[in-house]
Amino acid sequence: MNGYAVLKGASYTLAVTPDMVIHNGTTQTTEMIVNPESEYLKELPSHLRSFEDAVNYMPNQVYIGNEKPQKMAEVGFPWYDKLMDGASKDGKYGEIMPEDEFYGLIQICDVFDLVKLEKGFAADVKAKLDAHHMFTDEHVAILDKNSETTQEEIAALVNDEHAEPLYFNNVLVGAVKRAHDVDVNLSAHVMLENLVTKASNVLSLLNLVKKAGVNPADIDYVVDCCEEACGDMNQRGGGNFAKAAAEVAGFVNATGSDVRGFCAGPAHAMLHAAALVKAGTFKNVVVTAGGCTAKLGMNGKDHVKKGLPILEDAIAGFSVLVSADDGVSPQIRTDIVGRHTVGTGSAPQNVISSLVTNPLDEAGLKIVDIDKYSPEMQNPDITKPAGAGDVPEANYKMIAALGVKRGELQRNEIADFVKEHGMTGWAPTQGHIPSGVPYLGLLRDEILSGETKRAMIIGKGSLFLGRMTNLFDGVSFVVQANDGSASEENGGVDESKVKAMIGQAMRAFAEGLMGEEE
């Protein structure tokens, strides 16, 4: 027996990309087609944040581990107008990377010579990445291929060869070429989207190595759970982002595959990883995902209309290490799993019951036995001005209301339940990114410190977006303090006990020999 799989580490990263908001976010690119002279497009540039403002934005600091959600609650909504002073781009769990360095990383991740950067820009970026100390000499040397690339050549690629432009401070500094003349799945637009996803994925993997002390050679399997798809005209979503990112990150002993489930993808992927480890198939599995260019500035019109800065200006990523039970790290209870089935339906009560109370009932637990719930941890600064409300709070109220109906809570206890068992949302609205997993890094620390005993991670997704089904989707799982079950399953034998047993056996053997000699 292997005990439960455990949560061994997590990383969270952001790449602040204001120029990509304008040129790659679908809200903006669609507006350029249908209403190119709109007031929104004219006003948009003045609402873009500086890199420093993005770093000093408290929800971003929570995401990379320098602050806690409780601090956001103390400061109070909204947070865009309450910037921190002197916050660091380097976090406990990851980092916030500026746009120019991210372009360099995109080229590092390009193995088909599709990315071109202007020579002066590339030289500056190379120096910055070289000083980063997370990239190898081989990584940064890739930028030397731009030594003769001029801005005129890049402009020609964009104007004549259907390449996607890369801007920095509104200046053309690079381009991503198409990978095929007629295959739309390998167009420059798709290649840029996929390279951005891969690069942000790699950034998180490298930070997992750095921040969690992971040995890349120890990783057996990688599961990617982003919302993009890579392939060609004959297999549009064939993959494999997982192995592509693992290659750049130096996970030389890993294989891997992609798992998709819209916003619920990360929760599905965590269950895959935990099951693989629990079964003994692999010892160390990384669940990882990069971000999405399409969602940059997704709610920009509402933000600009209300005088807010563009808050969806970063490409997010995360990586989580799931390993064999070490007797210390938080355990992933693969026997307490909620699931929205085909027959569950879309009624809110049915959804919450399938994901929360059904698995708790099977485990003999009540709603209040879960210290913290982590559903869609979207940042209210982004969603409330767009009319979507406070998404985490709405989830907590639904859970509490179900608790009242079940007789586990009094109606006047709902507000206290939300405060005690919930958290203020801090994650960027990058689709799959907010879905439960942003809490895993902090949760591990809280459990190890004794602050939290048990938490539930909830992933939910809307499948209608793919026009294949109108079904809703979701899965959940519980993470708990390590109960020592792994050592119990193995007879309670640890290294010291084994040594003692060997010593006793050797003494008995020696005494036996001495007895025979006498």
TrEMBL record:
Q: Which residues cross the membrane?
A: none
Pinpoint the DUF5940 domain residues: 350-515
In its UniProt record, a GO molecular function of this protein is: acyltransferase activity
Q: Report the SUPFAM superfamilies cross-referenced here.
A: Thiolase-like
- Domain of life (superkingdom): Bacteria
Q: One Pfam family for this entry, by name?
A: DUF5940
Q: What name does this protein carry? A: Glycine reductase
